[in-house]
Write a structure and sequence with these properties.
The chain is of the alpha+beta class. The protein has 23 helices and 43 strands. The strands form 12 sheets. The chain has a 7-stranded mixed beta sheet with strand order 29-32-33-39-38-37-36, sandwiched between helices. Strands 3, 4, 5, 6, 11 and 12 form a 6-stranded antiparallel beta sheet that branches. A hairpin with an 8-residue loop joins strand 34 and strand 35. Helix 13 packs across helix 14 and helix 22 packs across helix 23.
């Protein structure tokens, strides 16, 4: 929105005379408006620029046998600037090639010494007397382009009204030097798309009087031009006024043309200029119809299938059933709130006009404008919200200007189809703005600022009831009201303080354990990554998941960032594999990555999520319904490793990461969470069938599977282009924490020496070391401090179906030094129990 300071002053008479546009911009920027630039209309022109009258015109083309039209003119530029002697006394001679002016026309003359802007930014050139085409050209008759006036008529010379004083300063006549604020209006401040709205902000910022140009009017008592509104949702107010006997040749006054041009619009004709002027002044878009071209009553309805409309830009548009139309008995005559139709356009012979001023639904207008890719000044305002009280005022203002400037007659009758709802109110605590801002704001200040905004206030004890002004549809909640008070007081008055955490609160048990898990994995040499939660369906195929695997039941996003990955992840592994490939592609061969994040599983009981309210806190029932509609989102922890787990060095040979490292990562997670895992052989994609372990935790109902670890299946490695022998682990972290100890017991420290006993047991090849260790632990009793598998051996001596497992048993008593007999007895008890549960036999040699 471009807003000239001179126009703003009309409604803010209390502004200091010497106030600059830059100072005005600084004030309203502090109040929340975005002023992009401050421009000066024709500000680059310096020197004597005056008003002159053409006294004579001599055509030089035939006389001098020239190839183009050249004219030598004598121009009266006022006694102060005319030649005072010789044949040219009382005027100046000027050579000019333009042909859009005639004898006795009043023009703008740049005298020698005037500096004008050049064709390129930053360029300037000076006017000087010089001889050309056999005559001395002692000045220059100017066009708007040559003076740098934006949006002017650049086709020819400026021709001023005949009553303009000769010799007067043309800069003042043309409004040059007036500063213009170029404001970027955000969607919630549609009222600022008008001089009225900007002037109100300026008056409030400088704390001076504001004179509202939209003063209430006396409504006509009789109905005027017939109007039928069939869609009150799309149009809840429609005003029509009629002006007859308009002089079609009446020009727009210079002051109006200059103001419209300063705001970035072109002057077209009196009727069009008046409607644009009022739209810029008040913010109410309007439209004028040639009454002679209307067929019956004006109506408002939605488009029917197959209808077409030729708009004012000459395009024939196929209409959509969602389009809101202005119609008469002949059919569509305009896209409501966007652009009028060509069939009722005002032309050169129009004498009677019907003025439309309506209020349309912002969402409807926005959709129509986007559907037809037809953004207009009207749609830009309607889609941001226009004051619904303005239509009768704007219609009356247009009618008055047409009558005054075009000699028309205003019909006394007028139509006002008003279906507006009652104004809403907002109730809040008087102290709420102060609490929100964190600074002192007394009740008087709050009310004064709201009145400046245009609201009405009523106080009942500590309760403030606010009725927002009709031009502020964005004020709907207590927070909106508080923000208005705070911004007018100045955002810089809000103290910059960090919020204080309430005493006695800290991390929850789950938060502490999750951090412990991340620290444990990082301490084990793994790097944490954060992957996007979006996956493609083909990734489930690459993992080799069966058709009925629950991990294939993924939620699809309604509006995905990328159509290539429209699903929410059900496992962390695809993201980790992608991170692994990305790092491998950048030359890193030895990798150990982990991620802690949520996966998403569809809810089997919840329906569509309800829309939460914004005017109050949601009820427990609404919160429960929202929660029920959400997918199940457990946190998982996953690990992936490839390359060397222990590098080669002076200490000896290194080794590659293998399935045991993946299992050990799971054990580290469980230890950090405060529990122990049991490992069982399993078969689950995407792991290798013979190198896959189920990680379980003991519960009252048996072992609960929390996740899996091991080496990836060769087929999966090939599909995902991963290195051979890549290993991975994934655990349900939330489920693990549910079965973790709330308090981790402190380690038992004994001052007495341990007793170590080794035992080698022969078991069947299909018996797991985990089961044997559990049996040994159960049999050894409380004296057993630790147990460690240190050797697995197979050979012909044992038989094809047997293996030997060697364990180191460490015994210690808290209150005494164990005797050899006590340690041996505990060892024998452990071996006996292992024999009972697993069939283990002690290997003698």
């Amino acid at each position: 929105m471009r807003a000239p300071i001179s126009w703003i002053r009309d409604f803010v008479p209390g502004l200091p005379v010497d106030l600059t546009g830059r100072q005005v911009a600084e004030k309203i920027i502090a109040a929340g408006l975005e002023v992009e630039t401050v421009e000066s209309v024709g500000g680059e022109v310096t020197g004597p620029l005056v008003v002159g009258r053409v006294l004579s015109i001599e055509e030089l083309r035939e006389k001098e046998k020239l190839k183009k039209d050249i004219r030598y003119c004598r121009v009266d530029v006022g006694p102060e600037h005319n030649e005072t002697h010789g044949v040219g006394a009382g005027s100046r001679g000027i050579v000019c090639g333009a042909r859009n002016f005639a004898l006795s026309d009043v023009v703008v003359v740049a005298l020698p010494g005037t500096v004008l802007p050049g064709a390129e930014p930053g360029e300037h050139w000076a006017v000087a007397a010089r001889k050309t085409y056999g005559h001395v050209s002692d000045g220059m008759i100017c066009s708007e382009r040559e003076l740098g006036i934006p949006e002017g008529d650049h086709a020819g010379i400026i021709v001023l009204p005949p009553t303009t004083p000769i010799g007067a300063d043309a800069k003042a006549v043309l409004g040059m030097g007036d500063e213009v604020l170029d404001i970027a209006v955000t969607p919630d401040r549609g009222y600022a798309l008008s001089i009225r709205g900007v002037a109100r902000e300026v008056a409030t910022a400088f704390d001076v009087e504001f004179v509202d140009p939209a003063a209430p009017i006396t409504a006509p008592t009789a109905a005027g031009y017939p109007v039928r509104v069939a869609d009150p949702t799309g149009c809840d107010r429609f005003v029509a006024r009629v002006v007859t006997g308009l002089d079609p040749s009446a020009p727009s006054p210079e002051w109006m043309r200059r103001r419209i041009q300063a705001c970035g619009m072109r002057s077209i004709s009196l009727a069009v200029d008046v409607t644009n002027y009022v739209m810029l002044e008040l913010g109410q878009p309007t439209h004028a119809y040639d009454r002679a071209k209307l067929r019956g009553a004006i109506g408002v309805r939605r488009a029917a299938s197959g209808e077409k409309l030729e708009t004012l830009d000459g395009a024939v548009r196929d209409l959509d059933p969602g389009d809101l139309l202005i119609v008469d008995d002949s059919g569509p005559i305009g896209l409501a709130g966007v652009m009028g139709g060509a069939s009722t356009e005002i032309g050169a012979g129009t004498t009677d006009v019907v003025i439309e001023a309506a209020h349309f639904d912002p969402v409807t207008i926005a959709r129509v404008a986007r559907r037809h890719r037809l953004a207009s000044e009207a749609s830009r305002r309607f889609e941001r919200g226009v004051d619904p009280m303005l239509p009768p005022i704007a219609a009356a203002r247009i009618a008055g200007l047409l009558a005054e400037l075009g000699g028309g007659t205003i019909e006394d009758a007028g139509t006002d189809e008003n279906m507006l709802p009652a104004p809403a109110t907002i109730t809040l605590d008087v102290a709420y703005p102060a609490r929100l801002a964190g600074r002192d704001l007394d009740g008087g200040t709050v009310q004064r600022r709201l009145v400046q905004v245009g609201a009405t206030c009523a106080v009942d004890g500590a309760t403030l009831t606010v009725t927002p002004p009709s031009w502020r549809p964005d004020l709907t909640d207590p927070a909106d009201v508080a923000e208005e008070v705070i911004r007018l007081e100045g955002y810089d008055s809000v103290p910059a303080l960090l919020p204080r955490a309430p005493a006695g609160r800290g991390l929850t048990f789950e938060q502490q354990r999750r951090r412990s898990v991340s620290r444990a994995l990082a301490g084990a040499g793994l790097a944490e990554v954060l992957c996007y939660p979006f996956v493609a369906a083909r990734e489930f195929d690459a993992l080799g998941l069966p058709v009925d695997d629950v991990r294939r039941s993924a939620l699809r996003l309604a509006n995905p960032i990328s159509e290539a990955e429209p699903l929410l992840r059900t496992t962390l592994l695809p993201g980790l594999f992608a991170a692994l490939r990305r790092n491998l592609g950048r030359g890193t061969a030895d990798l150990a990555l982990f991620e802690v994040g949520r996966v998403f599983r569809p809810s089997l009981t919840g329906g569509p999520a309800p829309r939460p309210p914004v005017d109050r806190r949601a009820t427990p029932e609404e919160l429960a319904a929202t929660e029920a509609a959400l997918p199940h989102q457990p946190r998982h922890v996953a690990v992936v490793m490839t390359g060397a787990r222990l590098p080669n060095g002076w200490w000896g040979a290194g080794r590659e990461a293998d399935w045991a490292d993946a299992i050990e990562a799971g054990r580290a997670v469980a230890a950090a969470a405060g529990t122990d895992l049991t490992v069982h052989q399993d078969n689950l994609a995407p792991w290798h069938p013979g190198r896959c372990a189920a990680l379980t935790v003991a519960t009252d109902d048996g072992d609960l599977v929390l996740g899996h670890a091991g080496e990836l299946h060769p087929r999966v490695i090939g599909e995902l282009s991963l290195p051979a022998r890549t290993v991975a682990m994934e655990l349900d972290l939330d489920l693990l924490l549910e079965h973790a100890n709330a308090v981790t017991p402190a380690p038992r420290i004994s001052g007495f020496p341990p007793a170590t006993q080794d035992v080698a047991l022969i078991v069947a090849a299909d018996v797991s070391a985990q089961d044997v260790a559990a049996a040994l632990r159960e049999g050894a009793g409380e004296l057993l401090e630790s147990i460690r598998l240190f050797d697995v051996w197979t050979g012909e001596q044992l038989g094809a179906d047997n293996k030997s497992l060697a364990f180191a048993l460490r015994f210690r008593a808290p209150d005494r030094t164990l005797t050899a007999e006590e340690a041996s007895a505990a060892r024998e008890a452990a071996v006996a129990r292992a024999g009972e549960l697993t069939g283990a036999v002690l290997r003698r040699a």
